Structures are given as structure tokens and as C-alpha cells.
């Protein structure tokens, strides 16, 4: 076999690139080849001489590259190549490079390399066949390099196997295409790696984090601005920090940085309680009233307590009282509960009777009762009335037996006495008698000069407390004009164990008193004073039917309550009767059939038990002020009355109507949903409806829903004027026309009114 000419060192640096359209490359670079024995794989000489192998093999190489899921496949589906003969030396340092393109790398890259000895005359001889199975993975910038060394009894080989993705291709199979752009570079797996200040999956969102006057925000992975703490708005320039204190207000912040007042607060800084809520924490609910049923009051701005309207009093401001100081209406002030308090000296229900107690001989001697009546000072609690009816002294003699008078100068027959009487009424404990006149004394005038008189002399005697026995004594005297009066006699009588009668039904006795010469007939009436009762007339009882009581008095002075009144002073209505006159009947109930109520002590009206409402107190309602149960009070009929700003069946939805560009433009329906004002779009009612424009969304350029609008050929300016989009013309923007000035399309403009071709350009 003839040796090939020796290649120069420059020729040994063989660089061969195969054309391809793949997304990656496999590069095989032969670095070293040695065959010191100059033999083939059968151990035959490449070129035989007289004394063995005469020279080196004229070697060249066949390379087969296969991509496969198997390590043992060699279909050469990535290509084959054959090098030129590298020379007949058997020790070569080379840089022989071969490239193989692929479109999608599989799990294995299998390399098959054969070394051949070129023979010009005979067929070429196989020197060596070498296999290498490689499992590449390309995370490192889409490039992997491996040095492979092979040594057999004939050949030594060193080669580099490189696997890499083409430019702009990435991933373990080089199938991910990524072309770096202005806003991104490419990662190891072909993913877009956004450059500084660019975000999003395609790095199309520009966002520059700021914390200055232009804004206060960072950027999320999509390039959207993420406002820093307490900053809001599109550019995060609006500052809002939630507060719940008296100095700064009581509010949270919405997405735009607007203050959203906490429940029960309102105002620009949410420092003012909403209607009907009061107190430092707006925690006291109070609804001003001016009705007989609910009261007459306003609410204290400081703490929500009831402040009665003028002339109304009591805890519920239901007691009416107008103070007066005149004779027509009375003279009184009003107490805290609305009761009339008479001015000094004035008495009676309306304080119209004037009475000041006196005790002198000029003004009188009396006290004043509750009604202003004058009452004389008490001289006792009972009276004894003695009426002299008849007096006889037929002998006309004195107690000593002498004549009262003689007919003729103290001689002859006795003449009648000129009689007068001294009465003495005494009392003592029953079983005893007394002539102490401790009840009273009285003296009559002369009754005449005959000794058989029919009389009607009446004398009244007062006593303070009757002791049980009474003695009536009558001293009879003879009046003498010239000498001292003479004693005629003193008949007396004692009544034991006597009980005085009543004021209108006195105890009456007709009595006869006798002494030696005298006989007296008299009537005794014994009774308790008005309003006094009992054996001693010591029980006071004044029948009443007023605020002090409602009763009459029995014979012993016991109070007998009028119908429907009870109690020690009969000033309490009987069970189930109510009202000023106990004229209203009401039976308290606590059941679902008849209701749940007690009865008003003042007028007998039904007063529903806690959490029960309605005319019959059958409607159940428990007011709440919390997010779990709702925010409501209970109306008179038991229906829930949502507090201001709360809506829905249980008043759990908060909504306050707004009409400004910060909070929105809406009212609230019964369920608390926002109902946008005319021209504004849900859900926030911040933006105008499609086709509506202007300061209050009152302008529209889309009065008719035209085809041009549906297809998107029309838009509206900020002031509501209809505008055709670019290249669309005509009244409804349905004519498409693009002006040109070239030989391919023509030379013309477009008529704005209808889109027809207008004048030619440059006269063409």
C-alpha cells in the first residue's frame, strides 16, 4: 500500500461544519490518535514489509452520531461523516472537528467511530471500531463538553464530545427558543429573564420601584405596582393609614386610599358619630322622640343620654309639667319626675289654694290641710254634748232646806228660786268616777223664778282621748240680787263603760239627775270628732279618693278601700288593675299565644318584656350591634330597623350612598348592594358606563347601539363626542379607507365624511 503524502501541521487542523437547520449541535473533536503497532483490529500490518510492518497506517475516520432513547442504538440519525486521510504516522495530535445538527435532543447521544487504513489498490482495512453512549444534560448555558479516551491493543484515541444548543435555543433538549430582547435576556432553560424594571411572563410590564414624590411602591412579578405600607392609588401617591382614635379618626382605607369610616362613624376624617349614635366611642344608640308613646326628648351629644324637651320630665320624658306662678294655672315648679311642687303657701292639686298657718288673734288660729283648707287647732278628738231639758224644785228650797225666797219678807210660803246652772263634765277610766271637770265646765244664765222649767240649754265639751267613763254633774244655784247666791244642789250621774258614737251617729242618752230637792232631765250626746274613730276616739281616718288614698272608714276607723284599690292606704290598684283611677284592666302574660308583656303601673297599657314588640308583644326581636348578628334596633312592631349605613335582612351589609369621584356614585338598595347612579358602571360606580362621558357621566355618543360600535370602529372622546377609529370613516364609521401615495396602492386621500377616495396626491 502506497503511503499518502505527509500532511502539514496546518492541514491537520481540519475544521468541518455540516449544514443544518437544527436547534443544537453535537461536536466531535478528535484530539489524539496513536497506533504504535501499525496494525489493524485483526492485528495485521497496515503495510507489511520484509521485516514486519513496514510503515504506519494511512488512517482516516468514519463518525456516526445517533440521538436515541436507547443507549445501544446506532442509526446515525444525526448524521455520518468521513475525514480525509491524516497521514501514515501512527502518533497524531489533532484538532479534527466534526459537527452534527439536531432539532430535538433525546435522552442519549450515541457515538460510533471507525478507524480505517486507506489502500490505493486494495480495499481499505478496518483498524478499530469504537462505541460511546452518552447521556447529556444541558443546564450550563446550553453547553456540555466531555473528553472521551479509548485504548485497545491496537489504537489509543482521545476525543472531545460537545453538545450545545444553537443560539437562542435552550433547555435539556434545545427545544425552547428564546431571543433576547430589549426587556429581557434568556435563562438556562430558555425562560425569559426580565431586565431591570421589566416584569411579567413576557417582560412587557415596565415598573420602576419608587419611594419619592412620584410614588411609593415596589413591583410584583407581573410588573404591577405594589404600594408600600399606607400608600394607595394608581401610582401609590395617596397616603392613608387606618386609625381608630379620637385625634386622627376612625376609619380603614379602600383600594384607592380613601377613608372608609368604621361602623357608626362619618365625616371627612370619620370623627363624627353617624345619626342617632353618641358617646366617645359612638356606642350609645339614641333616637330623639316627640310622641306620647315613646317620650319627648333629644339626645345628649356627649353621651347619648335622653334630654327631655321643655316641660317633659321623668326617665322616659313622658310626664308633662309646665311650671306656673299665676292664679289661673297655679303656683308650682316641676320636680324631676314631673310632679308639681307647690310654692310656699300654696296647696291643692294644682296649687291654686293659698293658706299659711296662723296662730294669733288678728289672723286666726289654724293650720292648713293638703287641699289648703283651714283647720282649727285640735281641741280634742271627741265631743260630749249636754242639753238641759227640764228642771224642777217643787219645794223652792235650797240645799240646806231654807226657802229660796219668802213671799213676804222672809215669812210665809217659799217662793221659786232664781235658778242658774254650773255644768261639770268629767271622765275617768272605766270603773272610776271623777268630778274634776277634766272635760269641761260651763255656766248658764238665770232661767227664771219658777221651779218647773222646760229647757233647751245646749253645751259642747271637747276631749282628747276618751277613757271609758263619763260623769255629768249640774250645780244648781239661786241668784240673789242683794246677797250672795245660794247653793241649791248638785245632782250628778256617771255612765260606766261607754263607747262614743260616730260623728254622724253619736251615742245618745236621756238622763235624770236628782238631789234632795232638785230633779234635772238632760240629753247626753257622746261622739268622736269628724275623721276620728274607736273607743278612745284616737284612730284618725279621713276618707279619700285622691293621690293620698282611695277609701272610706268603718266604725272603728279602719280604712275600707274603694273598689279596685288595695294596700294599707288604698293607694295601690288591685291585681291586674291599673291607671290613675284603677280603671284599666291588664293581665301580664308570657306565652306565645297571648303575648309577652307586663302592665304599666301608670295606665295599665301593655309593656312588652325585653325583646318582645308589637301591640300584643308577640313579635320577637333582639337588637344587635356586631358583625356576626347584625347592626339594628327593633321598631315598635318588632321589625328590625337597620342602623344608619347597614342593610340586608339582618343588617349585616354596610353601605353608605356616595356621590363623589373618590368613593363612587351610588345609592344603596335594601340589601346593601350599590346601585350606581345614572351613567355609572358597576361594581364600584367609579367609571362611566360604556358610551357615557363627562363630569357626571351625563354625555353619551352611543344613543343608538350601532353596528360600528359593536365592531369596535367607534370610540368616544372624553367630552362625549363620537370618533371613528383610524382608517374608519362615515357617519357610523363603517367605511374603511387607508390613504396611499405609492405606485402599488395608488395616490389618494380619504374623504372623512364617507370614506370615499378623495383628491389624488400630486395630481396623480
Automatic annotation (TrEMBL):
Membrane topology summary: Single-pass type I membrane protein
Taxonomy, superkingdom: Eukaryota
Gene3D superfamilies given in the database record: 2.10.25.140, 2.60.40.3510
GO molecular function: scavenger receptor activity
GO BP annotations, alphabetical order: cell communication
Cellular compartments per GO CC: membrane
Subcellular localization(s) per the UniProt record: Membrane
InterPro entries hit by this protein: C2_dom (IPR000008), C2_domain_sf (IPR035892), DSL (IPR001774), EGF (IPR000742), MEGF10/SREC1/2-like (IPR042635)
Signal peptide: 1-22
Pfam families: C2, DSL
Disulfide feature: 227-236, 261-270, 308-317, 342-351, 528-537, 541-553, 561-570, 573-582, 608-617, 642-651, 676-685
Keywords assigned: Developmental protein, Disulfide bond, EGF-like domain, Membrane, Repeat, Signal, Transmembrane, Transmembrane helix
Annotated PANTHER family: DELTA-LIKE PROTEIN, SCAVENGER RECEPTOR CLASS F
General function of this protein: Putative Notch ligand involved in the mediation of Notch signaling.
Protein name (database record): Delta-like protein
Source organism per UniProt: Pocillopora damicornis
Amino acid at each position: 500500500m502506497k503511503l499518502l503524502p505527509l500532511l502539514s501541521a496546518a492541514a491537520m487542523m481540519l475544521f468541518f461544519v455540516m449544514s443544518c437547520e437544527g436547534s443544537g449541535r453535537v461536536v466531535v473533536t478528535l484530539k489524539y490518535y496513536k497506533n504504535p503497532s501499525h496494525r489493524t483490529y485483526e492485528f495485521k500490518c497496515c503495510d507489511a514489509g520484509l521485516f514486519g510492518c513496514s510503515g504506519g497506517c494511512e488512517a482516516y475516520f468514519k463518525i456516526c452520531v445517533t440521538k436515541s432513547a436507547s443507549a445501544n442504538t446506532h442509526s446515525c440519525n444525526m448524521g455520518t461523516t468521513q475525514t480525509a486521510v491524516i497521514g501514515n504516522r501512527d502518533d497524531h495530535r489533532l484538532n479534527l472537528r466534526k459537527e452534527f445538527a439536531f432539532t430535538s435532543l433525546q435522552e442519549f447521544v450515541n457515538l460510533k467511530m471507525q478507524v480505517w487504513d486507506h489502500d490505493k489498490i486494495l480495499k481499505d482495512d478496518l483498524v478499530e471500531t469504537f462505541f460511546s453512549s452518552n447521556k447529556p444534560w444541558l443546564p450550563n448555558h446550553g453547553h456540555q463538553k466531555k473528553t472521551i479516551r479509548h485504548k485497545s491493543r491496537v489504537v489509543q484515541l482521545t476525543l472531545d464530545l460537545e453538545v450545545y444548543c444553537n443560539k437562542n435555543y435552550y433547555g435539556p433538549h434545545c427545544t425552547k427558543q428564546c431571543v433576547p430582547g430589549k426587556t429581557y435576556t434568556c435563562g438556562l432553560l430558555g425562560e425569559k429573564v426580565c431586565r431591570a424594571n421589566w416584569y411579567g411572563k413576557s417582560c412587557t410590564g415596565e415598573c420602576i420601584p419608587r419611594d419619592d414624590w412620584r410614588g411609593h411602591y415596589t413591583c410584583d412579578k407581573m410588573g404591577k405596582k405594589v404600594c408600600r405600607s399606607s400608600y394607595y392609588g394608581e401610582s401609590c401617591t395617596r397616603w392613608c393609614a387606618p386609625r381608630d382614635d379620637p385625634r386622627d379618626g376612625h376609619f380603614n382605607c379602600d383600594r384607592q386610599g380613601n377613608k372608609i369610616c368604621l361602623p357608626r362613624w362619618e365625616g371627612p376624617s370619620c370623627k363624627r358619630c353617624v345619626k342617632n349614635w353618641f358617646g366617645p366611642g359612638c356606642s350609645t344608640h339614641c333616637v330623639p322622640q316627640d310622641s306620647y308613646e315613646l317620650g319627648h326628648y333629644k339626645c345628649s351629644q356627649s353621651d347619648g343620654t335622653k334630654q327631655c324637651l321643655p316641660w317633659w320630665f321623668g326617665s322616659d320624658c313622658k310626664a308633662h309639667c309646665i311650671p306656673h306662678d299665676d292664679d289661673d294655672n297655679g303656683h308650682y315648679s316641676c320636680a324631676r319626675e314631673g310632679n308639681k311642687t307647690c310654692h310656699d303657701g300654696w296647696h291643692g292639686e294644682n296649687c291654686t289654694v293659698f293658706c299659711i298657718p296662723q296662730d294669733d288673734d288678728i289672723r286666726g288660729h289654724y293650720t292648713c290641710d293638703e287641699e289648703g283648707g283651714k283647720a282649727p287647732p285640735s281641741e280634742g278628738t271627741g265631743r260630749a254634748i249636754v242639753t238641759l231639758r227640764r228642771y224642777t224644785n217643787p219645794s223652792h228650797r235650797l240645799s240646806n232646806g231654807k226657802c229660796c225666797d219668802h213671799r213676804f219678807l222672809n215669812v210665809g210660803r217659799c217662793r221659786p228660786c232664781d235658778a242658774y246652772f254650773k255644768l261639770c263634765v268629767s271622765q275617768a277610766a272605766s270603773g272610776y268616777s271623777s268630778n274634776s271637770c277634766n272635760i269641761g265646765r260651763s255656766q248658764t244664765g238665770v232661767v227664771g223664778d219658777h221651779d218647773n222649767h222646760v229647757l233647751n240649754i245646749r253645751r259642747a265639751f271637747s276631749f282628747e282621748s276618751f277613757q271609758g267613763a263619763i260623769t255629768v254633774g249640774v250645780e244648781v244655784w239661786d241668784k240673789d240680787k242683794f246677797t250672795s247666791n245660794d247653793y241649791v244642789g248638785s245632782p250628778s250621774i256617771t255612765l260606766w263603760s261607754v263607747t262614743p258614737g260616730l260623728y254622724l251617729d253619736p251615742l245618745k242618752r236621756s238622763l235624770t239627775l236628782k238631789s234632795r230637792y232638785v230633779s234635772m232631765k238632760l240629753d247626753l250626746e257622746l261622739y268622736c270628732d269628724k275623721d276620728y274613730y274607736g273607743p278612745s276616739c284616737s284612730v284618725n281616718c279621713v276618707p279619700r279618693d285622691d293621690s293620698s288614698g282611695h277609701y272610706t272608714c268603718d266604725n272603728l276607723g279602719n280604712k275600707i278601700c274603694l273598689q279596685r284599690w288595695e294596700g294599707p292606704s288604698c293607694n295601690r290598684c288591685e291585681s291586674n288593675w291599673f291607671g290613675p283611677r284603677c280603671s284599666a284592666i291588664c293581665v301580664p302574660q308570657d306565652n306565645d299565644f297571648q303575648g309577652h308583656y307586663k302592665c304599666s303601673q301608670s295606665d295599665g297599657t301593655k309593656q312588652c318584656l325585653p325583646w318582645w314588640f308589637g301591640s300584643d308583644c308577640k313579635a320577637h326581636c333582639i337588637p344587635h350591634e356586631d358583625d356576626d348578628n347584625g347592626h339594628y334596633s327593633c321598631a315598635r312592631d318588632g321589625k328590625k330597623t337597620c342602623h344608619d349605613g347597614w342593610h340586608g335582612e339582618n343588617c349585616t351589609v354596610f353601605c353608605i350612598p356616595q356621590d363623589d369621584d373618590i368613593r363612587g356614585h351610588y345609592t344603596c338598595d335594601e340589601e346593601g348592594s350599590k346601585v350606581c347612579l345614572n351613567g355609572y358602571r358597576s361594581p364600584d360606580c367609579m367609571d362611566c358606563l360604556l358610551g357615557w362621558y363627562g363630569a357626571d357621566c351625563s354625555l353619551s355618543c352611543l344613543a343608538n347601539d350601532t353596528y360600528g360600535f359593536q365592531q369596535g370602529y367607534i370610540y368616544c372622546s372624553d367630552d362625549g363626542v363620537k370618533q371613528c377609529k383610524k382608517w374608519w370613516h362615515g357617519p357610523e364609521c363603517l367605511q374603511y379607507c387607508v390613504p396611499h401615495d405609492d405606485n402599488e396602492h395608488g395616490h389618494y386621500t380619504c374623504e372623512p365624511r364617507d370614506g370615499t377616495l378623495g383628491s389624488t396626491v400630486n395630481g396623480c
